[in-house]
Amino acid sequence: MSFEINGTTFPQMPRAGQCLRTFLRELGQFGVKKGCDAGDCGACTVLLDGEPVHSCLIPAFRAEGRAITTIEGLGGEDGTHPMQQAFLDAQAFQCGFCTAGMILTCASLNQAQRTDLGAALKGNICRCTGYRAIEDAIHGKCNVEARVEAGGAFGRSLPAPAGPDVVRGKARYTFDTEIEGLLHIKLLRSPHAHARIVSIDKSAAMAVPGVHAILTHEDAPMVLTSTARHEKDWMDPEDTRILDDVVRFIGQRVAAVVAESEGVAEEACRRLNVTYEILPALIDPEQAMMPGAPLVHPDRTSANRVADAQRNLVAEIHGEFGDVASALATSSVTYEATFHSHRVQHAALETHGGLAWLDEAGVLNVRSSTQVPFLTRRALSEIFRLPMDKVRVFCERVGGGFGGKQEMFVEDILALAALKTERPVKLELTREEQFIATSTRHPMRVHIKAGADSSGKLTALQLDVLSNTGAYGNHGPSVMFHAVNESIAVYNCPNKRVDGFVVYTNTVPAGAFRGYGLPQSVIAVEAAIDELARQLGISPYDMRRRNIVWPGDPMLSPPESEYHDVLYGSYGLDQCIDLVERAMLADQPQPELSPDWLTGDGIALTMIDTAPPAGHIADAMIALNEDGGFDLTVGTAEFGNGTSTVHRQIAATVLATTVDRIRLRQSDTAHGGHDTGAYGSTGTFVAGKATQAAATQLAAELKAAAAGAWLCDVASCTLEDEFVASGVRRMSFAELAKHAREAGRPLAAQGNSEGTPRSVGFNVQGFRVAVNKGTGEIRILRSVQAADAGVVANPMQCRGQVEGGVAQALGAALYEEMVIDAEGRVTNPKFRDYHLPSFADVPRTEVLFAETSDTIGPLGAKSMSESPYNPVAAALGNAIADATGIRFTAPPFKPDRLFPALHDKFGD
Each residue of 845-861: pLDDT tens digit? Predict the structure, then answer.
């Protein structure tokens, strides 16, 4: 057989049953991505005779005799197709994992299809952008600034440096490489929610030709650790082993088979004979602390950072300022309700996975899809008792993260297999494994009590929170602490009380997720503010203005924190409220709706600390090259968060050059230095400060070198347009590099940031909705978000972060939901049954920025990666309540959930 791929003939015979996607990737067409295994996401889209198809659904042999076009061949001899250029001009991508498939679909659209993009793009999912920039690309809109003067990069809409490679399919993600002698890992997973492994019979599995090793708990170190990665280990309980003899949720790893192919490994997994002793399972978090409840981790103690294993308590928090009970008793108005949040999957289109091998120097190399390569290296070093210089962890481009890749879900088993077999190994999770065996957002029950006086001033706020961390405690304590902190610290109130519990259950673990606990608590707090305002006849905007913190006010939530480094680096919350109010009141065309539709407005605000407590470390290094350009090395990873762009903008601005003169290396522990990781809103705020410090130091070195050559006062030297200037004298950076080389003193500098003090960011979301009182259908008529991001480092890119955050949060608020049955099994572990937002589901969001400059962040900037997510569900819930007069307390707000209450109120 032979196949025509991008105009070239490949005489190749596919394997029996091989899909076209895998066949093309084996031929080096790495632009064809694996995202869902089921034809749901479109990341594997190729053109067959000019028509877009999902190549994961096409048997490879059926493509014989047809013209196959992948993203690598779309541009033909010219190299760049007009649609590829349109995506560059609009910057219609973030992580870029979906981009190749999206471009191929968009390039094939005819004029009729362009009139209904919701239908035309229903087969292609983007988890990052919110789709507005993709629409811009289709309509030929340019969002980038073509030319920016030297030293003027910061604050401008400059394109991502990897853009050309992303749109041409040349950007390399975790598995876009070939390694000779590669073995494959497949994992046998537990069918039981709670069981002890009595024995594992490997004999039949080892008899399968091509099996190299079968690893069980007997082969794994006895070390207890956490999959969560933080700079400070005390933030996370130690309750996890690589492979354990007790399984605590359906989907937990039981054994790892290492074989010549995935097929062989899967067959060997099927032949493993495991004998289990079934243990009582705990599925309901409400029962977790009840006397006599099954114990998930009975042997864990405070030495493992578990609060009370005999009550299934991972952590608890209690505190009170003032006297809440007395304040509620004397308040003019009060509100009390219980809210429930649900499980949501990160759904990054690139699943967890990685490659591991030992090099000639005996260094363990791990290439994975991670937000935290340096912390993962440290963990592997400790678990396997390897010197740090014998472990290297790195990532290239990461296909989405959203907090899910602040975990170590694959690197440990990869390391174990590589060390045992001394062969390169690969582990790539399927989409189903991503659902059943990684992590989710923490489901929470939040009970709120609130009171206000007759003037609308808050008198009392009380939160009682129960957080379900699942079978393991990764991130459980810190997510709960975060949930009860900024959600009420943003409001001035003399009486506050918090009681919080994090409990184990025998369900899939919860972990870090964009917003980190705040979306779950904010929906309750912001509902209370709205309900108090309604009782008092005060507008929701004015109610918030009367109660928000202002510069100089303490940001307090009980109990008193031991960390006092959160400051008002800048303050734009008042501007954000004003911006949203003006936008929501502005005239706009009104849709024609029948009397069955009820309309309403809703808003919500949030505050977020722009770095975690207890330190977040970032190092940066920069050096002058002989050509007058610069090499910048940072540790932070790029997964659509835009840090690659912003770091170059910072360095170029400080060094009076252009971003194309800054060559970036990142996210590789072999480069030296340290970086805690790209999480907790730190990629710009913390790591960017390290880049600023390094560039500032190098700028001083450049001026000193020129002053030494001219024998003049260094104070008279400035950097201007890629030169050092002093009066009428000019010396180019290339000349400086030559002088430095001849003197044997390379010009280089280092910078560091420790993540303290911290600042705060603010976001306000507004919605106008229509709710059909007969069906429960919701239509979003208007979406506005205002953000205080300090000096906006890259307006185009930052706007994309806000749009993407709103889109992702709307998915969770309207329909995304992981369903767990009574046995603890995930019943919808694939995109088709989970409903990720597609183009037709996402409204355009108007994004507005407050005008502030942060005194702490780099060049006045603050973070804006996770905070746009936080107010969305709360604002939507308030808008639905305004429209219907019914307070719904448990998203997702699906029509079938709304219908019973609407029917009770409005009838047929």
Answer: 999 999 999 999 999 99
